[in-house]
Every structure is written in structure tokens, then in C-alpha cells.
Design brief:
two-stranded antiparallel ribbon, mainly alpha, about 300 residues, globular, single chain
Length: about 300
């Protein structure tokens, strides 16, 4: 199957799912329930696995393994985004009824940015092989920083993008924006706090892309596989947010699992000229590390055990 047909099938699937999820499912602004989020999360995972099956049938099992491994890595990294989203919505007091609206446009913007960055990354790898060592080093450093570095601080007032935006456009501080990104104040268009929240969501995704895109490029250099695995993971993030936002704190060791995955993938890139780790092995390692970190997270801590005994 030629590349035009592959991209066409992907675009039709994504357009159909987006229409159902974002257009039909969000005709009226409302707070997403756990049940609705669970249904959509299952739907996105099911469509992603179905697309993986299609990749296997049309492109071969190797490409399907690359897609699935990239999808799992991107999905695990996306969970870390949930903490940032929670902080952003809390800082700007974004009501639950308006959060799906922000995430919808945040995801659409992320898809465009990821496509551009992936094409740039693939082009650089094709032109300059040594870039793979740079990406490997970035991933190892990112893994170390995630595990042992300071917690990410959220201070929009110090964000250079937000400060630049406020210099070129007036910003309203009125929380009563009725879900609009822009409002007229005395005949002058102002951005609302909701738009500032969206802007920070986009900037945050750009920062996360620095980790996630090199990680998937370590699995495959095929732009179709890299982008589609990113896209399916990102598109399911909105539902995943509402499903896990209330319990995401329970997965206290997940970030250590993700950090180990980043280090592993970074090492995989650094040794690629000496030994190429099979994609199937990488998939097993990634799934094993993430599963173990989730199991350990769900086990009662020593403090909880002592409290329970009392």
C-alpha cells in the first residue's frame, strides 16, 4: 500500500473519531463523568489497537510492533501531562464544565505541533546520523530529571510565552467568560483566562514533546509510524484525564517507571551502531517496567500499613 493511501486511511479514521468525540459528544458544554470518560478511553484504546491490526495486515508485523511500542511509550509519557493539566486548571479556576473545551483545542493544536516536530526530527536523523546520540543523551537526562529533579513549578506569570502574549493583546481577568476564549470589553477584544490556560496547555505539550518524540524515534524512523502512534496516544488523553484526574495521585511510582523507560530508550539509541535491540524486546521491557511501577504504586505504603494496624 502506498504512502498516500496509508495517510488517507489514517486521516479518515482520525476525522471520524474526532467528529464523534468532539463534535457530537460536545454539542453542549458539560462536566465529563467518570462513566463517559471510561467509555471514551476504552473506545480510543480499541480504535488504536484496531489501527495496529491494520498496520500489521498492510505493512507487516515489524511495523505493527513499532506502532504499538511507540503508542505505549507515548501513552505512559502522556500520563505525566495529567499532573500539569490539573495544576493549570486549578491555577486558573477552570470549571469542570469548561475543561473539555480547553482540552479539545489543546489536543488539536498538539497534533499540528507534533507533526511538524516529527517531520523535522526524521529529516535530521536522515541527514545527520550523529543526531541519534544527541537524542539519546536528551532522553537519559530527561529520565534522570523526571526521577530525581525538582517538581515542575507552575507560575504562568513568569512564563515567557504568556508574558509576550499579554504584551500584544489585552487580557481580561473576569472569571465570568461563559466558556469563551475571547470577549469584548468596551469594544476592545480581550483574551480570557480560559485562553491563557489553553496557551499554557500548548506550551506544556511542546515541552513534553522534547521527551516523547525522540523516545518514539528510537523505536522507528518511519514518520507514518511515529506520528500515528503519537496521534492516537494524544487523542485519547482528553478522556484519560477525566478518568484518572481524581486518582492520578495513587500512581506515585509511575513517574519512576516512565523515567526508567526514558533512560532505557536513550541507551537503546546510544548503542544502536553496536547492537540493535529488537522492537519486540523493547515492547516487553517497556510494558514490564510500567506494569511493575503501577503495581508497586497500588501497594499500601509502610505508613499506610502502620496506620491501618492502629
Amino acid at each position: 500500500m502506498n504512502s498516500v493511501m496509508m495517510w488517507s486511511v489514517f486521516n479518515v479514521v482520525i476525522a471520524g473519531m474526532l467528529y464523534i468525540d468532539l463534535a457530537l459528544g460536545q454539542r453542549k458544554a458539560h462536566a465529563v463523568s467518570i462513566r463517559e470518560a471510561a467509555i471514551w478511553s476504552a473506545a480510543w484504546v480499541g480504535v488504536s489497537l484496531g489501527f495496529c491490526w491494520w498496520v500489521a495486515a498492510t505493512m507487516g508485523q515489524q511495523k505493527a510492533l513499532e506502532f504499538l511500542t511507540g503508542y505505549v511509550i507515548e501513552k505512559s509519557l502522556s500520563v505525566d501531562n495529567l499532573f500539569v493539566f490539573i495544576m493549570i486548571f486549578s491555577y486558573f479556576n477552570v470549571a469542570p464544565v469548561h475543561q473539555p473545551h480547553v482540552l479539545k483545542w489543546g489536543i488539536i493544536g498538539a497534533l499540528v505541533m507534533r507533526l511538524v516536530l516529527i517531520l523535522i526530527g526524521v529529516t535530521l536523523l536522515e541527514m545527520f546520523h550523529w543526531i541519534i546520540y544527541l537524542f539519546g543523551g536528551i532522553l537519559i537526562y530527561s529520565g534522570w530529571r523526571m526521577a530525581f529533579g525538582p517538581e515542575r513549578a507552575l507560575d504562568p506569570e513568569k512564563n515567557p510565552v504568556v508574558r509576550w502574549f499579554r504584551r500584544i493583546m489585552p487580557t481580561s481577568t473576569d472569571p465570568d467568560h461563559h466558556g469563551h476564549f475571547f470577549v469584548l470589553v468596551k469594544g476592545v477584544r480581550h483574551a480570557t483566562p480560559l485562553f491563557i490556560a489553553l496557551l499554557i496547555v500548548e506550551v506544556s505539550d511542546l515541552v513534553f514533546a522534547v521527551d516523547s518524540i525522540p523516545a518514539v524515534l528510537a523505536i522507528s524512523h518511519d514518520p507514518f509510524i511515529v506520528y500515528t502512534s503519537n496521534a492516537f496516544a494524544i487523542l485519547g488523553l482528553r478522556a484519560l484525564y477525566f478518568l484518572l484526574s481524581g486518582i492520578v495521585g495513587l500512581f506515585r511510582y509511575l513517574k519512576f517507571g516512565v523515567s526508567i523507560v526514558l533512560v532505557y530508550v536513550g541507551i537503546k539509541m546510544l548503542i544502536v551502531d553496536f547492537y540493535k535491540i529488537p522492537v519486540g524486546v523493547s515492547l516487553g521491557v517497556v510494558v514490564g517496567i510500567l506494569t511493575l511501577s503501577i503495581i508497586v504504586s497500588l501497594l499500601p505504603s509502610k505508613k499506610e500499613t502502620v496506620t491501618g494496624d492502629k
